[in-house]
Specification:
mainly alpha
């Protein structure tokens, strides 16, 4: 069974360039790391949880050890940078968005309701069940 898995993974790696494989792994592992970070796990533990299977996967394929370590650390470095920057931006953007939403909600009551136009004159109906005769 391991031979089949190793052969399939090696075929996947050989058909694509190393950059494409690293990008695919990054696309798969980044949402997992984001979910783990949102749950409340510290960043170092998230990187350990994501990095250990990544290094094992690259080693099982049969890549040289230096290439495994280099590629694994590159992916883990990008994931840590994206997580740190993303959550920092989220901490800044979320209060701003909440204040804007709250102000819009308060101001909509002054403009005559939910921001919808209220017609004063009856207009033509578009209901097919009502006869205009």
């Amino acid at each position: 069974m391991w031979t089949l898995v190793k052969a399939w993974l090696l075929k996947l790696v050989l058909q694509r360039s190393l950059g494409a494989v690293l990008a695919a792994l990054l696309v798969i592992l980044l949402p997992i790391a984001g979910i783990l970070k949102v749950v409340g796990i510290p960043l170092l533990l998230v990187l350990l949880i994501v990095g250990a299977p990544l290094l094992l996967l690259l080693a099982v394929i049969g890549l040289p050890l230096l290439l495994v370590l280099g590629a694994g650390m590159a992916i883990i470095g990008v994931i840590s940078a994206v997580l740190a920057m993303g959550f920092a931006l989220l901490k800044i953007a979320l209060p701003i968005l909440l204040v804007v939403w709250l102000l819009r909600w308060f101001m909509s009551g002054r403009n005559g309701g939910n921001g919808k136009e209220q017609r004063t004159e009856p207009g033509p109906t578009t209901d097919p069940g009502i006869d205009a005769a």
